[in-house]
Specification:
The chain has a single domain, classed as Vaccinia Virus protein VP39 (Rossmann fold, 3-Layer(aba) Sandwich), CATH 3.40.50. The protein contains six helices and seven strands; from the N terminus they run H-E-H-E-H-E-H-E-H-E-H-E-E. The protein has helices at 25-34, 51-58, 71-84, 99-105, 124-133, 149-157, and strands spanning 41-45, 63-68, 92-96, 110-115, 137-148, 164-170, 173-179.
C-alpha cells in the first residue's frame, strides 16, 4: 500500500498484519476526489494503518489526528509517520484511544472526520451520535463514514440527525458523506 497523490506520493504505508481491512486505493482515490482537504483539520478515527490520514496530509491537510485503540496498529502508524513525514511531526498527533472515548473526551473540532471502524463493530451509532451531539465538526465540515454494503441501509433506517448526506458505493465498500451545514 502507498500514498496515491500529493507531495508524499508513492511513499509506502505498512498495515497491521492481522484482521485489518485497509481502505482500498480506489476508495481513497474517490474520497479525495470528492472532498477537498487542503488546509483542513482532519481526524482519522479508527485509523488502522493511518492511510487515510497520511493521504490527507500528503494532499495538503493542515493537521491530522490519528485515533486508534489497537496496539499493533498504533505501532504501525508511528512507523509510517516517521517514514513518511520524517521532520514534520507538527502536522499530526497519534493517540491510542477507543473511538468512543475520543469522541467523548476531545475538545478539538475538525473540518473532516473519517470514521472507519471494523465493519462488524457495534460502535457506529454511538460514535456518530457523540460527534454530532458534541459538535466536533466545524461549520461546513464533513463526517465520512466507511461501512460495508450490508450494513449501511440498516444504519440509515435509524438515522435521526439533521445532517445532509450522500452515499457512494464502491463494490462492498460504502462511504456515507455527511455535511454539517450549521
Amino acid at each position: 500500500m502507498h500514498i496515491i497523490s500529493g507531495y508524499k506520493k508513492n511513499k509506502k504505508i505498512i498495515a497491521p498484519k492481522r484482521d485489518f481491512r485497509p481502505t482500498q486505493s480506489k476508495v481513497r482515490e474517490a474520497l479525495f476526489n470528492i472532498i477537498e482537504v487542503k488546509d483542513k483539520i482532519f481526524l482519522d478515527l479508527c485509523s488502522g494503518s493511518g492511510a487515510i490520514g497520511f493521504e490527507a496530509l500528503s494532499r495538503g491537510a493542515k493537521y491530522c489526528v490519528f485515533a486508534e485503540i489497537d496496539r499493533e496498529a498504533i505501532q504501525n502508524i508511528f512507523i509510517n509517520a516517521k517514514n513518511i513525514f520524517e521532520n514534520e511531526n507538527e502536522k499530526y498527533k497519534i493517540k491510542r484511544i477507543a473511538a468512543e472515548d475520543y469522541a467523548k473526551r476531545t475538545n478539538e473540532k475538525f473540518d473532516i472526520i473519517y470514521f472507519d471502524p471494523p465493519y462488524n463493530s457495534k460502535i457506529y451509532e454511538t460514535v456518530i451520535s457523540l460527534i454530532i451531539e458534541r459538535n466536533l465538526l466545524n461549520e461546513n465540515g464533513y463526517l465520512i463514514v466507511e461501512s460495508s454494503y450490508k450494513y449501511y441501509k440498516k444504519f440509515l433506517e435509524n438515522y435521526k440527525y439533521n445532517l445532509k448526506y450522500e452515499i457512494k458505493i464502491y463494490g462492498e465498500n460504502v462511504l456515507i458523506i455527511f455535511k454539517n451545514i450549521n
